[in-house]
Design goal:
Blueprint: H1 3-15, E1 26-29, H2 59-70, E2 75-79, H3 89-98, E3 102-107, H4 117-120, E4 124-128, H5 134-141, H6 145-165, E5 168-175, H7 180-193, E6 196-201, E7 203-204, E8 207-208, H8 216-231, H9 239-247, E9 260-261, E10 266-271, E11 274-280, H10 281-284, H11 287-298, H12 311-321, H13 323-326, H14 330-333
Helix pairs in contact: 2-3, 5-6, 7-8, 8-9
C-alpha cells in the first residue's frame, strides 16, 4: 500500500473518532548506539536512547522485516540512536530501495562526507541541527567543539551535494528554552536555501519542557513557522500542527499512522514514548498481526491530552484529521 492510498483508507476512522490502523510510514530505530550526549535525547521515561539495550538485525533479518513492512506502507523513516554508526547502513538503505520504499534518513551526519553513497540511496535527508555555532552546538550535543564542527561539516556537504545527488534536505531542530535564538538562525538558513524544515519543542519524558509552556519567545518562534508556511516556505506539518505546537494544544494522537520499531524489529505499542507492549514483527509474520497481538495484550490507546508535542506523533495525527489541509502537503508525497 502507498502513502496516499492508506491516508484515504484511514479517513473514515479518523473522521469518526476511531483509531486508524493503516500506517502512513514506519519509523525504524536501526540502532540505539550514539557517540553524542544531546540533552534532549530521551524516550518516554527520560532515558537517553543510547542507554537502551537492543540487538540489531543483520542484513538478512532486516530484509525479512522490511519485506513485511513494505506490504503495509511505502515510506520508511530510518533513525536512531545515530544511524551512521551502523557500518552496514548503505546495505540497509539498498535493501529498502530495492523493495520500493521512499526513504527518510534522520541523522546528525557525522562522517557523512566520507559516505556519499548514503545520499544517493536516500530520498529525504533530515539533518538534526540545533545551532549553527560550533561552541553552542558543542554544549547541546555534550561533546567538544571539534565534534560539533563535524555536524556542521555534514550540513555543508549536504548543501553542496543535494542537487547533484537528488536528495531532499530537511533541517530538523529541537527547540529548547536555551537555544531559541539558535533555532531562529536554522530557520533563516532553511529559508535562504529553500530547504525543508521542521521544529519540535523539547520534551521531558512524555511532556513538553515546562519552560516552553507560556514562553513568549517560543510562541514568537512558532508563530514565525506558521507565517512562513503560509508564505510557501517548506515547513513540514499542516498548519494545525504548527499552531498546535505554538499553543501546546490538546490533540487526538493516532500512533498507528507511524508505528515505531526498535533495532531488533520489536514494535512499540501504542508508541515509543508510552510503551504498554512490545511485539516482534518478524515472529508475528506481519505488521497487522503484530498490532492485533499488542492490542490484545495492552488494550486501547490512552488519551495523552496535551502531552507529547513531538513532530513524529503530532504531525501525522493532525495531517490525517485535516484532509483539506493535507492537500497542501501533496508535494511532500510525490
Amino acid at each position: 500500500m502507498g502513502f496516499v492510498a492508506n491516508y484515504l483508507r484511514n479517513l473514515p476512522a479518523a473522521l469518526t473518532g476511531r483509531q486508524p490502523a493503516r500506517p502512513l510510514f514506519f519509523s525504524w530505530y536501526v540502532t540505539h548506539r550514539c557517540a553524542l550526549a544531546c540533552g534532549y535525547c530521551s524516550d518516554g521515561e527520560g532515558r537517553p536512547f543510547k542507554e537502551l539495550r537492543s540487538a540489531e538485525l543483520s542484513l538478512p533479518e532486516a530484509e525479512r522485516l522490511l519485506t513485511l513492512l513494505r506490504r503495509e506502507a511505502d515510506t520508511l523513516d530510518l533513525t536512531g540512536g545515530e544511524p551512521l554508526i551502523r557500518e552496514d547502513l548503505e546495505g540497509l538503505l539498498g535493501i529498502a530501495r530495492r523493495l520500493g520504499f521512499r526513504i527518510a534518513l534522520n541523522t546528525k551526519g557525522i562522517g557523512l562526507p566520507d559516505r556519499p553513497e548514503l545520499l544517493r540511496l536516500t530520498d529525504v535527508l533530515a539533518l538534526s541541527v540545533d545551532s549553527l555555532d560550533p561552541t553552542r552546538l558543542s554544549g547541546i550535543i555534550g561533546r567538544p567543539p571539534e565534534v560539533a564542527r563535524q555536524v556542521l561539516a555534514a550540513l555543508d556537504f549536504a548543501l553542496a551535494e543535494r542537487k547533484r545527488l537528488k536528495v531532499r534536505l530537511v533541517l530538523a531542530a529541537v527547540a529548547m528554552p536555551g537555544n531559541l535564538d539558535d533555532v531562529e538562525q536554522v530557520v533563516d538558513l532553511a529559508e535562504r536555501h529553500g530547504l525543508g524544515l521542521h521544529v519540535s519543542p523539547q520534551n521531558v519524558g512524555t511532556d513538553v519542557h515546562p519552560d516552553l509552556r507560556g514562553n513568549p519567545r517560543w510562541a514568537r518562534l512558532a508563530q514565525r513557522l506558521v507565517e512562513a508556511k503560509a508564505r510557501g516556505v517548506d515547513v513540514l506539518g499542516v498548519p494545525e500542527y504548527l499552531r498546535g505546537i505554538r499553543d501546546m494544544a490538546r490533540y487526538r494522537c493516532m500512533p498507528f499512522l507511524m508505528p515505531t520499531l526498535r533495532p531488533d524489529g520489536r514494535a512499540c505499542y501504542p508508541c515509543l514514548d508510552f510503551v504498554k507492549a512490545e511485539v516482534d514483527v518478524l515472529a508475528s509474520g506481519s505488521w497487522s498481526a503484530a498490532l492485533a497481538q499488542a492490542r490484545a495484550q495492552a488494550g486501547p490507546v490512552p488519551d495523552c491530552g496535551d502531552r507529547c508535542q513531538i513532530f513524529c506523533h503530532m504531525a501525522p495525527s493532525l495531517l490525517q484529521q485535516h484532509p483539506l489541509s493535507a492537500l497542501g502537503e501533496l508535494r511532500h508525497w510525490s
